[in-house]
Amino acid sequence: VTRNFFGHTKRDVFQPTLQITYHADDFDLISTTGLVWWRTEDLTDSDYTNIPLLILRDEQEALTFTQDFRFTNPIGKPVALGEHTSLQWQAGMFFFFNDYEQSLANTSDSGFIPVAETFTKAEQEDYGMGLYGQGTFTFGKKLELLTGLRLDLESKDIEARTETVPGGITRVDASRSFAALSPQVALSYRFKPDIMGYLSFSGGYKAASFNAIGPEEYEE
Q1: 8 Å CB contact between 90 and 70
Q2: Which end of the chain is more exposed for a tag (fewer CB within 10 A), N or C?
Q3: pLDDT in tens, 143-167
Q4: What is the average per-residue pLDDT within 66-94?
């Protein structure tokens, strides 16, 4: 790649996790707490030429907190529903919060060629929760039916300011909320101890997001 200077990327990451398990007579409770903090600093020759035109300075920082509470039947102790029928189950709640900041400057290093410069500062917050449940029914020793359902609720907010020189200033203050149900169904049959066939269906979900450095795309 053609460039007039070598850039760099610096990244710091800190991500501790705490897991606590409690065993009761009728259920197990697993609590998982997570924290992720990271920060990056980039310096790039953004015009990709050997002429000193544009320098991109990008600083990003994010903090994410997650908490999951999961209840299950005791390990190795499914719920007996009949002489040849049993149930293994799990249910839980998941919470998270994410705070993200970005500061970006695309500046000129040229004193003789006019080049447009941009400066962007943005902060995004994302928080939500999920409720889920899953059950596996075993009929005899060969047939199993798995069913599950998850509800996700999420909210995203952004405040951004972009200045273009020459040009003007664009400000954005936007919010969006999301909700979705994700089902899961699977049926399996064990023909022999080492041969099994199955059918499975599941739904997935990923909320949309804002683009911190492209405010004109989502300005309301």
Answers
A1: yes
A2: N
A3: 999 999 999 999 999 999 888 887 7
A4: 94
